[in-house]
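Our platform keeps sequence and structure together, in a single record for each protein. Such a record has a labelled line for the sequence and another for the backbone structure tokens. Nothing more is needed to write down the fold, since each code stands for a local backbone conformation. For reference, a complete record is included directly beneath this paragraph:
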Amino acid sequence: MRDLSTLVATLREAKIIDLSQTLEEHIPHFPTHAKFFHNLWGSYWHGERSLHYLLVMHEHNGTHVDAPAHFISDSKPEAHVTMERVPPARLIGRGARLDCRGMKEGDYVSRDFIRAWEEKHGALERSDIVLFNFGWSEHWKLRPEYARYVKDWPGVSMGAAEYLVEKSVAALGVDALSPDPPAALASNPIHPFVLERQVLIIENLANLEQLPDFFLFVALPLKIRAGSGSPIRAVALV
């Protein structure tokens, strides 16, 4: 085992960048998913000893990860991995941030785009966590102003998804509602393809523009039995 004190000292010296959106009522959500509710349950304002709230939320509210079972049914038992069976190490590792802010609504990251990025910045490696920075998080607003965020965002093409699977990455993430824009979700989404191959999908990330090319990515999901996904607190250490 590595020297624990050295590891702790290194982590304490690192700059931490929060990559998670704040969970609060009226945040953007996928149209078929439930909204997030934060209801007061007890408080010292009302003569009780402590303050506490009841959370009512969807597994895919806010910054979250999709488990393979989100799109892969139990007819494929080996691929139908639910949240409690996802190894925590899948979301701890080297992160790579690809700047895609030049893309507009309806655009897709291509295989050639990723390969060109690698030639300039360095090769993606096995078990990397690859984050696509579309700049879409600037549209993250509370209802009713969130309409722009949930319409026609950029995405990741099937060719790019196939390339990431070939590279054996652990996960891919976006600062948008999904790596599949609405048009792709209606025709040929990458969700089933990558999830069946155990590549996790992270959605609704924030602050990706603050990241260097490579960094340490850390996120831990809730251990939800039979879960299709989970909210995460994602951070980068640089």
